[in-house]
Amino acid sequence: MKRILVVALLLMNIYAVTAQNTTKNTDVASANVKSVEGKNINTSTFNNDGKPFIIDFWATWCKPCVAELTAIAENYNDWKEETGVKVFAISIDDTRTMASVGPFVAGKNWDFEVYLDPNSDFRRAMNVNNVPHTFLFDGKGKMIAQHNSYAPGDEEKLYEEIKKLTGK
Fold first, then answer.
1. Going by DSSP bridges, is the β-strand pair 40-42/53-58 parallel, antiparallel, or unpaired?
2. Rounded alpha-carbon distances, angstroms, from residue 150 to 12, 29, 153
3. In the chain, where are the structural domains located?
4. Nearest-5° angle of CA 77, CA 83, CA 84?
5. Peptide bond preceding 118 in cis form (omega within 30 of 0)
6. I want to staple 133 with a disulfide (CB 3.0 to 4.6 A). Which of 18, 69, 120, 128 is the partner?
7. How many Cα atoms within 13 Å fall on the side-chain side of residue 166?
8. Radius of gyration, alpha carbons of the chain
């Protein structure tokens, strides 16, 4: 009887580990978005070759969004060099204003990958209610942190989290 119990516990542990290893490997929801050039992209392909990445939901009409992305842009080259982090900026501008996103980003000189989510499919899939909403993912696509809204200095807190992920 004791052997059967030990074997049963062992099999349960093996099953638990196997089940855990077969679960979804990323916390990035799957939805279709468009690049500013009009190319369709599925968000499940967002990755950064094993390095951390940020997904930031924003809109051209949202002053805190623009302030946050501008603050990140001012440090982005240093961040990329030190940690390899990548930013995906997801505009939630609707079909009436999405044509202005490309020129807006070019005018700001942001060096991010920018995508359009005019129907809010990705926004809903990620449970984003308000912008700005920023997500930090590790190199495997696991969500590590998120925050909503923006106050000056939030970008430094975000960068500290990125450095923890990369051991820098």
1. unpaired
2. 46, 23, 9
3. 26-166
4. 70
5. no
6. 128
7. 23
8. 19
CB count in 10 Å sphere of residue 130: 11
What is the sign of the dihedral through the CA atoms of 110, 116, 117 and 118?
positive
Q: How many whole angstroms from its chain centre is CA 120?
A: 15
Question: Which residues touch 132 (CB under 8 Å, ≥6 apart)?
Answer: 56, 57, 58, 62, 64, 65, 68, 69, 148, 149, 150
Please, what is the Cα angle at 55 between 103 and 122, to 5 degrees? 85
Is the Cβ–Cβ distance between 85 and 113 less than 8 Å? no
Tell me the CATH class for 26-166. alpha beta
- Please give the model's pTM, rounded to 2 decimal places: 0.83
Of the two residues 33 and 6, the one the predictor is more confident about is 33
Nearest to 132 by CA among 30, 55, 74, 73: 55
Given a cut of 80, is residue 14 above it in pLDDT? Answer: no
Owner of token pair 């990705």: 122
The token pair at 160 is 């500290």
Q: Which secondary-structure segment (H or E) carries 113?
A: strand 113-116
